[in-house]
Amino acid sequence: MGMGGRRNLDRSGQPSDNPDARDGPGPRRSRRRDPVHHLRFLHPAMKRIFSGVQPSGNLHLGNYLGAIRNFVALQADFDCIYCVVDQHAITLWQDPAVLRQRTREVTAGYLAAGIDPKTSIIFNQSQVAAHSQLAWVFNCVTRIGWLNRMTQFKDKAGKNREKASSGLYVYPNLMAADILVYKATHVPVGEDQKQHLELTRDIAQKFNNDYGVEFFPIVEPLIQGAATRVMSLRDGAKKMSSSDPSDAARINMTDDADTVAKKVRRATSDSELLPDPSVVTGEGQFTAAFREARPEAANLMTIFAALTDRSLAEVVADYEGKGFADFKKALTDVAVARLGPMGEEMKRMVSDTGYVDQVLHDGAERAAARAQPIIDEVYDIVGFLRH
Ligand code: TRP
Hints:
The chain is mainly alpha-helical. The protein contains 15 helices and 5 strands. Helix 2 links the parallel strand 1 (48-53) and strand 2 (79-84).
């Protein structure tokens, strides 16, 4: 059916032509036209966090400083749901036994970092069917044009797009479902997930518009800034990643002290002395020029500041004019002190799976209980006959 000329005639059949919804995600989209803006401020006490980590690789320092550490802190002010997104992981091939193992490892990472499974909910995505159920509805809300603009799909699918799984393509719809099936209001994520959250907002808005309801909230991203963006130890221009072929490029949460020391010692640096405080801006970040000129120095100092909970300005002042040798020694000490006990606890929990599995089981039950009334309501709104 041609859709071009029907935009204003169409009150019932083709809500996809609704002018409020058709733009889709993208930088041109403004927040001014947000029709349910006020929902955000209705119940200040009802601040609900959802976030997720994929069990598709080793947990590393980037996951810890960029995500999990913040998840821990947010528990004080928010009602928090933390998910191990195993369904997202299989958008790229995963060996089944390894997937199970990594699901436990991410859970153990959450727990060892200090997420309290009594106050927060920890579970794995596949065990709460409501995620998939809502994702299907969203597959029918999202426009293909919106998905075609997703940069992460382009990156992950690479050149051979024809061979990418269709799951990888609709991945953002599942992510929106993860969040909205709990009507989460705030989502802590890294910079790279910003576009997916924009899409989540667009999906919520279009659903609300299409069905004439004010049902889904418009979520707020809590973007972790450059200060917690951890880069590769080998190349300061690349993100630290579990898919980097070189294990030396990352510090895994379960690395032992010797391994951490070795990786820090061998981390790429440069031949200059450490900088003076003029490289730190008024907002406490490194200047773009400094990050550009000396990405490795910026990365190592950022990691040091994050691990010691100190400001960059303080760290830079302490090491001004010193060489990397001293600094790397100090960095090793703080990394070992901070990660060592966590890594040990993770290893204990992963080898004796009883506790982790119990946490996941209990979490899935509580998550399902929260999601069920919402999915029931969605089904009613959409017109799925329930009996
Ligand atoms: N896409 C996220 C990532 O790769 C993981 C994720 C899935 C997520 N569902 C989510 C993050 C919901 C936040 C909220 O990092």
